[in-house]
């Protein structure tokens, strides 16, 4: 007799993985699957792995292993079986029949997490789009048995019950996907307007990128608390995968009148479902417009090199692979590294959770995005007061002297501004 879930109790799941020799670190992938299950608010009650030369086309795992999964699920009260591998619709259907349990794969699990975490209208629309796109090709399997009840050809009236239901559901889903895409286009236009406004301000744009749970949101929050215009405008941070789905932009100024926009982005992960990348593309593509990327790495994770490769591959896919980067090895305190922060070969080692190295990192970002600035002295006639006002607002002004022939301004300004107002530059 299967155990029924208690009201409010997490769903008990059994994890299953198949190693066919294609994964560089199969064990880590299974560990990550357990973390994903936890992030999806599920309770892992066991794990089964199988090593095969090739997968079973009908059941993915061998028939003997199916019996083992069924036994362990029964013994431990599992209500779902979660596969680390991507399953075809027919494999999900066949396994469900054999196990008499809900069967989901890694993609489905990540979709569940995104559905739980989505807070903004945009994120909810993106998740629903990805879910429906994932479901659409799987409808055939769901109604395969029913479709054989009626004729396989002719008009709708001659079709079987299952075939009719399949056709109707397919149309409903396709219609809903069309609606969602239109809504997302509207949201995307709003995002474009906001992005253009930031670009027009000429304030440099910096994006935090990296593997999920590397500490991007923590870095953003510590900078906002120290240097943000509104210190209370922090974002959610939690030690779990995909704690943040929304793209958040905050203005940072260390006090040198060299502000920059800092963007927190959705974290990447190994085997990130293509449907999610596609659905969240407008959000993820924020990184394309950055002047500088800050790749945040969980230095305490023994698989951090593989995670960096996943980040590099994803950035390349998004067309952001050539944007300048600062690499930040976060959580270095967990590795016993002292003192912190440290800078080695242009890479930073810090502990954002301990608020260690935040100022140093902010100033390093500032130096990088303002490297085209020049030290310049202008003599602005009083008739060009608008130029003086502009420089006082946009440049880092060291001194101002009001003379008979005009306003003498010594400032650190952008090279473009020096060229623009070169007639006022004092040789």
Describe this structure in words.
This protein has 427 residues and is α/β, with parallel strands linked by helices. It folds into four domains: 11-114, GTPase HflX, N-terminal domain (Rossmann fold, 3-Layer(aba) Sandwich), CATH 3.40.50; 119-189; 201-369, Rossmann fold (3-Layer(aba) Sandwich), CATH 3.40.50; 373-424, Alpha-Beta Plaits (2-Layer Sandwich), CATH 3.30.70. The protein has helices at residues 26-39, 63-76, 89-99, 106-117, 121-135, 139-142, 144-147, 161-200, 216-227, 274-279, 281-284, 304-317, 358-369, 385-394, 415-420; strands at residues 11-19, 42-51, 80-83, 102-105, 205-210, 248-252, 260-264, 292-298, 325-330, 342-344, 347-349, 373-380, 396-403, 406-414.
């Amino acid at each position: 007799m299967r155990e029924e879930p208690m009201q409010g109790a997490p769903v008990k799941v059994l994890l299953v993985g198949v190693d066919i020799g294609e994964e560089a670190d199969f064990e880590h992938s299974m560990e990550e699957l357990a973390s994903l299950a936890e992030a999806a608010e599920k309770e892992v009650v066991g794990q089964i792995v199988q090593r095969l030369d090739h997968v079973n086309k009908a059941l993915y795992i061998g028939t003997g292993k199916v019996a083992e999964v069924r036994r362990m699920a029964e013994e431990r009260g599992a209500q779902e079986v979660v596969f680390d591998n991507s399953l075809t619709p027919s494999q999900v259907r066949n396994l469900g029949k054999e196990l008499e349990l809900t069967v989901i794969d890694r993609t489905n699990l990540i979709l569940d997490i995104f559905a739980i975490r989505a807070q903004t209208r945009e994120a909810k629309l993106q998740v629903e789009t990805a879910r429906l796109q994932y479901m659409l090709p799987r409808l055939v399997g769901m109604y395969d048995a029913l479709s054989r009840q009626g004729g396989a050809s002719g008009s709708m009236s001659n079709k079987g019950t299952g075939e009719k239901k399949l056709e109707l559901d397919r149309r409903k889903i396709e219609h809903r996907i069309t609606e969602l895409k239109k809504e997302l286009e509207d949201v995307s236009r709003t995002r474009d307007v906001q992005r253009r406004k930031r670009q027009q301000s000429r304030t440099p744009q910096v994006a935090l990128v990296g593997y999920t749970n590397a500490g991007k949101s923590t870095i953003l929050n510590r900078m906002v608390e120290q240097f943000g215009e509104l210190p209370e405008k922090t974002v959610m941070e939690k030690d779990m995968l995909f704690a943040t789905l929304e793209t958040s932009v905050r203005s940072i100024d260390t006090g040198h009148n060299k502000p920059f926009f800092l963007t927190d982005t959705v974290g990447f992960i190994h085997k990130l479902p293509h449907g999610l990348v596609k659905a969240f593309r407008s959000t993820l593509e924020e990184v394309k417009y950055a002047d500088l990327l800050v790749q945040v790495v969980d230095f305490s994770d023994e698989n951090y090199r593989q995670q960096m490769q996943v980040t590099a591959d994803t950035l390349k896919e998004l067309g952001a692979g050539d944007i300048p980067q600062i690499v930040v090895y976060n959580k270095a305190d967990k590795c016993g590294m002292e003192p912190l922060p440290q800078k080695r070969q242009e890479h930073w080692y810090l502990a954002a959770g301990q608020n260690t190295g935040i100022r140093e990192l902010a100033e390093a970002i500032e130096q990088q995005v303002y490297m085209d600035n020049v030290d310049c002295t202008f003599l602005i006639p009083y008739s060009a007061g608008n130029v003086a006002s502009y420089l006082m607002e946009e440049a880092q002004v060291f001194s101002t002297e009001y003379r008979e022939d005009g306003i003498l301004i010594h400032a650190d300004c952008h090279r473009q501004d020096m060229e623009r107002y070169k007639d006022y530059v004092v040789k």
